Amino acid sequence: MYRVLFLLACLPLTAHALDYRVELEAPSELDALLRGNLDLYTLQQDEGLTAQDLDSIVAGTPAEARALLETEGYFDSEVKVSRDGDTVRVRVQPGAPVIVSAVDVTLQGPVRQQADYSRFLSRVMEDWALPEGAVFRQDDWDNSKKAALRPFLLDRFPQARLTAAQVRIDPASRQARVTLTVDSGPLIRFGDFRIDGLQRYPASIVSGMADFAPGAPYSQPSLVALQAALESDPHFTGVVVAPLWEQLHDDTVPLGITLSEQQRQKLEVGLNYSTGDGAGTRLGYEHYNLLRRGYTGSVAYDWKKSRQQLDLGLGFSRGGDGYAHSLNLQQRHAEQNLTVTDATELGLFRIRQRDNIEARFGVEYLIEREQIEGEATRDNKALVLSYGWAKRAVDNPLRPAAGYLLEGHVSGAGLAADTRFLRGYGRGALYWSPSFMRGTWLTRLELGQVWADDALQVPASRLFKAGGVGSVRGYDYQSLGIVNPDSGAVTGGRVLATATLEYQYPLTPAWRLAAFVDAGDAADSWQSWRLARAQGVGVRWLSPLAPLAFDIAYGARDQRWRWNLNLGLAF
Fold first, then answer.
1. CA nearest to 492, candidates 519, 469, 513, 522
2. Which residues contact 537 (CB under 8 A, 6 or more apart)?
3. Where is each Bacterial surface antigen (D15) domain found (predicted)?
């Protein structure tokens, strides 16, 4: 018996919160504010709350509620609180809100001597959240004060401050008069660049990427652009760009740039495999400091049984105008679908990368020979002008669940070409993960057309084929096109259209099941274009390096099953 009593005495006591409920009577637009902030609600589950504490909270609720209502512009509210046993009733009558009757914003300091002074005032008022006639709200007042400083902090006047911020409220007339004064402070200029971490590469690589020089007015967007440019440059793996405010002198602030360098040379050796043309090898070499001027040189050779390709590249770092340049030479040999193609391309490109958008201008000279079984050999050459634009706006580049990808190209040849042609191409992908169901939907659309006087004299690389990964699964790689009825050889067409609808179901964070429908074709004209359908299932492994996709698809046109293996996003 004593043992039982001893054990019971050792059992921990369990604390319970006071059991009471709150009935709130208030306009619906104020319901969330009161329930989310009144102590009656926020402390309801507090196990340490005593009956005496609850009495104190009930007594203080009217003042607490009125203070909350004032933040929403209600300065003449009535709050009644009563208690009936375990029930606390709160009745709120907010009354009429206070309206902003006048707004007086004044700018002082050197900004008044700027030629675009009026633009600063306009930008302040663009984001102003309390115009005349609006209900006065505390959040809007706080946001307006921040908005008033923002134009100065971003452009030339990073030391701007508020010297006056006052709201005069007349509860009787329910009117508020807002007064705000901004002192711009001195006009700040950039000083010299203090670069830390350079050992292999010249400082001109860094300074050349800035769209400003020492002595230029301070600009926060320019700092962000320089940071992004250095991060995307292959010479560096880590970048920090920040003004050295502790060294500010004579209204000039030095710019600190801390870098981590990439290795000067890189050798790449690899094995790869794709269902389109089997196993292969890749040899690559890159040098990031040619002639000790920071030029990037690259050599890459890809070998597969049906395709060999040699690429030589010379890259120049981005300049202050935001553009980088590259010179590329490519030699390739391919044997596919009873067609043998040898081509040489020399191209000069001007590239602009900003945020998630890349624009590319190019001039390319192409010499190509295409031997088609059962047909005469085609020899083509062309001087091609091109423009490309791409945007990647997804939530996660390696495992997207929401967002989109867009890409478009326009190119054409006139002079120094066997025939004049114009080529247009575009593709897009949309990722959608609805909140009402598990999984991710993927849709993809691809369109292209070539306008030419003589399609036979258009280089084969500028015509279209379909089939395989990233196109219509269930058919061999680039097997959809113009088919020679005698030899079965496949050549490119002047029109292309393919589409995909895919659903991915998550099994674990790294594994997904997929079901999809693909359709499309490449043909000589839209009149001869015929839909080739395919459907299938697959599995996705979202590896740390890139997504790996394995698919099995059934091609309805030839009634065959085929499998595809792909590393990376199929876009």
1. 522
2. 513, 514, 515, 516, 551, 552
3. 279-571
The one-letter amino acid code at 417 reads: A
Q: What share of the chain is helix, strand, coil (3-state, %, to 5)?
A: 20, 50, 30
- Nearest Cα residue to 216 out of 156, 257, 171: 156
b/e 132-152 (16+ beta carbons within 10 angstroms → b) = eebbbbeebbeebbebbbebb
Contact 337, 320 (CB under 8 A): no
Percent of all residues in the chain with a pLDDT value above 70, rounded to a whole number: 95
Residue range 420-446, pLDDT digits in tens:
899 999 999 999 999 999 999 999 999
**Residues facing 280 on adjacent strands:** 272, 304
Residue 525 carries which side chain, given as an amino acid letter? Answer: S
Secondary element (H or E) of residue 381: strand 378-394
Cα angle 128, 134, 138 (rounded to 5 degrees) comes to: 70
Distance separating alpha carbons of residues 292 and 474, to the nearest angstrom: 50
Structural contact between residues 132 and 100, judged by C-beta atoms closer than 8 angstroms: yes
pLDDT for 4 equals 43
3 state SS of 159: coil
Instruction: Please compute, for residue 440, the number of CA atoms within 13 A of its CA located in the half-sphere on the CB side.
Output: 23
* Structure token digits, residue 314: 């010379």
Q: Which two tokens stand for residue 554?
A: 């059934």
Torsion of CA 523, 529, 530, 534, to 10 degrees: 60
Helix (H) or strand (E) holding 64: helix 51-70
For residue 392, the model assigns a pLDDT of 92
**pLDDT the model gives residue 14:** 45
Query: 360: Cβ–Cβ under 8 A, 6 or more apart, which residues?
Result: 349, 350, 351, 352, 386, 387, 388, 389
SS3 state of residue 486: coil
- Alpha carbons 218 and 111: distance in angstroms, whole number: 13
Structure tokens at 139: 């959040």
Across 171-251, the runs of DSSP E, i.e. the strands, are 175-183, 189-196, 236-243
Is 460 strand, coil or helix?
helix
Q: Which amino acid, residue 456?
A: L
C-beta separation of 72 from 30 below 8 A? yes
- In the sheet with 236-243, reading across from the earlier edge strand, the strands are 189-196, 252-261, 236-243
Question: Looking at the DSSP assignment, which residues form a beta bridge with residue 281?
Answer: 271, 303
Q: Which helix (H) or strand (E) holds 152?
A: helix 138-154
The count of residues in the chain is 571
Half-sphere exposure of 7 (CA within 13 A, CB side): 4
- Beta bridge pairs of residue 565: 550
pTM of the model: 0.68
Q: Within 13 Å, how many C-alpha atoms sit on residue 27's CB side?
A: 12
Q: What is the pLDDT of residue 522?
A: 97
Separation between Cα atoms, residue 500 and residue 471, nearest integer Å: 8
C-alpha 55/C-alpha 290 separation (Å) is: 79
Q: Please give the order of strands across the beta sheet that includes 87-93.
A: 21-25, 87-93, 78-84
